[in-house]
Amino acid sequence: MSLEQKCVLVTGGSRGLGLAIIRRLLGEGFAVATCSRRPSIELDTLLREHADGSLLWFEAAIGNESSEATFFAHALAWAGGRNLYGVINNAAVARDGVLATLPNVDSDRIIEINLLGSLRMCRLALRHMLGTRLPGRIINISTDGAPGFASSGSWLPVSNAETSLVISAPTNSARAR
To answer: Of 19, 75, 101, 151, which is least packed with CB atoms within 10 Å of its CB?
Structure first.
């Protein structure tokens, strides 16, 4: 990985959309740090293909504040003096059901991972980006359903909150400059 190479952090990068995003970023020359609760066969293959140091995987649980902070610090240390160009908040969980009957434990988990995990990762990224005064990007991927799940509205409140997060973060960080 060269010092000119821009670094992007991607949460939830072991499979699905996250893995596709990582492949695309690597193909375009970015260095990528990703995290997930566990690796996948596909991610292990990608790590072997990019043994040049352009891809880092770290075991972390988005939805756990300590784990998120450890991943972010580890990724920054790995990136060294390279520009943290972006953070893509992709980690999410989905539960089937309607809001009225969704158990509290499931709705709490959805909020903790899909909303609060993204919020905390945004905060970490914004603090770093504002401190370096280098341009950067934050992309939050919102959950409105998942393959195999009917979009029954059980996560509509979380999806709406994620949309608010996307709208307010750039406005608030612009004021901080």
So the answer is: 101
